[in-house]
Amino acid sequence: MIEIIDVLAQQVTEWAGGSSRQLCISPAESSLAARNFRWRFSTADVNASGAFSDFSGYQRYLAIRSGRGLRLTVDAHQMQLETPNYVAIFGGHAATSGELLDGPVRDINLIVRLDEAGKALADTELLPVTLCAEPLTVTRARPRLWLVYADVTRLKLQVGDNRRTLEQGAVARFVASEFTLAAEHSSSCVIASVSADTTA
User: What percent of the chain has pLDDT over 90?
Assistant: First the structure.
């Protein structure tokens, strides 16, 4: 089954340095404020430099989708995020701040709870991908929970015999070991995954 989460169902929150759009969260009844979620997939428009919120007990995955870039400082270690293909992975407990390089940026975030051993959930990935003229098939050794975000353009998604169209801004959620994406023109999108055991 493919669940489609359209733009109208996504929660938008304003904050001092911009706004964030919650694309999907698990469990569905959990919340960002309560810090009781297993994972959260979101995007943010960042209009000002500043400190990141504390997410102790979680692993964070972050990439830039538009704008000139962001200089990320994590426990005094700096990372320059200037291209959509670079994904920063860091602990939610770390003292983290972001400095805009040249104006506002839009980023994509996946936050995943650590297990008792302090490790992120199995099969966790954040994958900004480029779509060309030919369809893109994604294959993994075992089924996992996938989240596909059509942030740039409309996408065509096929999972087995199930075919769906994702309008721009929508998110598809499904469990599979293989699926295919296509766009009418060369474009890009964001794919995230976590263990299929977290389907709630």
Answer: 88
